[in-house]
Amino acid sequence: MCFLALRNNPADPAHGGDFLYVVTGNVDQGESLLEAVLREVEEETGIVRIRHISILPIEKNFVDGWGRNCHETFFAIITDQEVRHLSEEHIESHWFERSTFLRLVRWFGSLDELAMILDHVTSLANEEDKLFFAQEGVEPVKSDFDRFSDSSLNF
């Protein structure tokens, strides 16, 4: 089981510096949360073959640097596909084993919480699968969970 980390483009300060992180993005107007996740994953990595998506039990509300109210929802995604391309936001992609991923990825929260999540989603995957996270920001603050009948989606 491998976990995907993307290296931000340090030449572009709009992307926050030089560190390893996960797929991120925003929900466009008129777009469902699921549509946004699938679009951002394809835009940032070229990955389109997704076997499973789980909504993770992590949500964050905050005010961003421009004064907008934001709500973030996190997803775990299982695929057997390699990264096909990177967006201009990223300069490298790496598939890491669990311990290396936990040590290197920048995570805005408890690493113990992240470790528990990795253990949970690992139980849903095959050994040859690859797993990554998508973090979708929604503005203004609202809940999009009514769009899903279940917190896990299989493809």
Radius of gyration: 15 Å
Largest sheet: 8 strands, mixed
- SS-derived structural category: alpha+beta
Could you spell the SSE succession in H and E letters?
EEEHEEEHHEE
Shape: globular
Q: What is the count of helical runs?
A: 3
Number of domains: 1
Instruction: Tell me the helix content.
Output: 10-25%
Which segments are poorly predicted (pLDDT under 50) over 5 or more consecutive residues?
138-155
CATH superfamily: Nucleoside Triphosphate Pyrophosphohydrolase
Q: Could you report the average pLDDT, rounded to the nearest whole number?
A: 78
What share of residues are in beta strands?
35-45%
N-end to C-end Cα span? 19 Å
In the CATH hierarchy, what is the architecture at level 2? Alpha-Beta Complex
Number of separate strands: 8
Task: Characterize the structure shown.
- With 155 residues, this protein is of the alpha+beta class.
- The protein has one domain (2-144): Nucleoside Triphosphate Pyrophosphohydrolase, CATH 3.90.79.10.
- Helices cover 21% and strands 37% of the residues.
- The chain has three helices and eight strands.
- Strands 1, 2, 3, 4, 5, 6, 7 and 8 form an eight-stranded mixed sheet that branches.
